[in-house]
Amino acid sequence: MSAPKRYTITAALPYTNGPIHIGHLAGVYVPADIYARYLRLKGKDVAYISGSDEHGVAIPMRAKKEGVSPQNIIDKYHTIIKKSFEDFGISFDNYSRTSAEIHHKTASDFFVKMYNEGDFVEEVTAQLYDAEADQFLADRFVVGTCPKCGFEESYGDQCENCGTSHNATDLINPKSVITGNVPTVKETKHWFLPLDKHEDFLRKWILEGHKKDWKPNVYGQVKSWVDDGLRPRAVTRDLDWGIPVPVEGAEGKVLYVWFDAPIGYISSTKEWAAREGKNWEDYWKKDDTKLVHFIGKDNIVFHCIIFPSMLKAHGDYILPDNVPANEFLNLEGNKLSTSKNWAVWLHEYLEDFPNQQDVLRYTLTANAPESKDNDFTWKDFQAKNNNELVAIFGNFINRVVVLTNKYYSGIVPTPNDFTEVDEDVLAAVKEFPNVIGKSVERYRFREASQELMNLARLGNKYLADEEPWKVIKVDEERVQTIMYVALQISAALAVVAEPFLPFTSTKLKGILNLEASISWDDISDKNVLIEAAHQINKGELLFSKIEDKTIDAQLEKLQATKLANEQENKVVEPQKETVEFDDFTKLDIRIGTILEAEKVAKTKKLLKLKVDVGIDTRTIVSGIAESFSPQDIIGQQVSVLVNLAPRKIRGVESQGMILMTDTPDGKLAFVEPEKAVKNGQAVS
């Protein structure tokens, strides 16, 4: 669409069974926010819409696990998610929730219109059923082996390993999540969206119409689905949590969450329009509106096949102009996992890094998984902050503001004659909004963020080359021009940084005292962004260096998570072969006290111990050096197998074995008496 009159931008509805993590931000919310903020700076009419997805089987599953009601779960996480977005600067025009009355009515009306026009197929089908729980197993209540990739923990609707969408009955070796039983098959009635009837439309609309302007990863996944042959998809479920199916004969059934959730974009727009005095239909039904869905790659099939088929069948709605889905973001080389707590949670980041929202925004944008999976590491986060935001962007602004206050008491100097260098720099500044804008409009946000940093680099190079701190000693008039040019660059940075670094932009505008609004296009169209004789304010640091200890604390937190996961997943060793009582009585285990401890040379795990076991004092070599420091275990009472045959370990004769066990964090722990006892006391 060449010149849309308005933009409807949707960001995937986050699911309210947990908080937001950096994978969600990198995949959906940061790029969508950059796009929306950019368009607003261009003076466009924008509706940036999202809301909490509060239906589906995962909500009652979480509620059952926590022993609360589903309403408690959605209220808890809706509050956390909404506040996290607000604190992080995600500039939604409206953030709603699918439990809202307006959404229930909108989704119900949508279904009824399609139902009345014969857009669904009603079928009695075989569904998985848990006899012990006396209920049909909705998608997330059943796991099994993915029929495509062989992943053994695939859900009934989608495999989290390969991203394939399927039906629960397609799973190999399915089992009920509720009871662990193998489910039976039982007949039930449902309504299906016949995607096969929409295949010709999808081929023409996407495979022909968007071959050149949609991202290859999105286009490729859609093409694979269509080429594989589309089949009817159920739009109802046997479940008691969700929007009741609004037709006769559908008692005990709700709308499938992937039918009702995307309609949440429409109901959220209605909510916003009513509040702002606008006509919501303009943003969903007018051909001069550009609709863009921001999602992760696991939602491509729903936003590019199922939802467009629904919109087309309904008949009144426009179709998305683009669906710039991102790939996945990994964390420290491993796949993000909410169930395993392998994530950086947004609300925790905001607590650990106060007033540093833009550092995370910039890092996630610079490393955005736009065309392939990418990795977030804390060391790279630190480097992006220290080596780019602090050393390039922050350094330039700090020098400009400090020198302006030092030389001119904060008053923008009047320039004198411009040199060729000055004119080239000012001309280059005018090009940046167009270059950055083109990248944003093509959904290349990584590229756009680096062009932003190139503008700051231009400023740094200009100051370094012109050296006003030296020239001031011999040519004060020349320095006036240098600082005037540097301040124009600073003002341009304050504007073009806003989509990427909104908190920094606000702070910089405050420092430069830019009360009058400067639009995106003003940078290219105007010769002066900040007038001579304008008073700027005192400086403050835009970014602060992040020290190693701060990063180490985050890495330690992740390491603790990894160890906890390993312990949770650790398989308990099976019982050993049965022994006779007489065999057990041959073991002589005594309580002893460690008198001395030292590391065994050239080893990581071994300590050489002197232990008083009551009957004598003996030397024991034990592999506990990675869990204990020698000085910390002097005086420790331990259980010792004293009649173990001696053997040499690294040249030291060991005369017994200390009994140990594992702790949840993967460390070793002594098997010791509850209270101090006399050395030599037997354990029986």
TrEMBL record:
A motif ('KMSKS' region) lies at residues 335-339. Zn(2+) binds at C146, C149, C159, C162. Signal peptide: none annotated. Binds 1 zinc ion per subunit. CDD domains: Anticodon_Ia_Met, MetRS_core. ATP binds at T338. One of its GO terms (molecular function) is tRNA binding. Pfam families: Anticodon_3 (PF19303), tRNA-synt_1g (PF09334), tRNA_bind (PF01588). Residues 583-684 form the TRNA-binding domain. Its cofactor is Zn(2+). Its EC number is 6.1.1.10. Transmembrane segments: none annotated. It comes from the Bacteria. Belongs to the class-I aminoacyl-tRNA synthetase family. MetG type 1 subfamily. Homodimer. Is required not only for elongation of protein synthesis but also for the initiation of all mRNA translation through initiator tRNA(fMet) aminoacylation. This is Methionine--tRNA ligase.
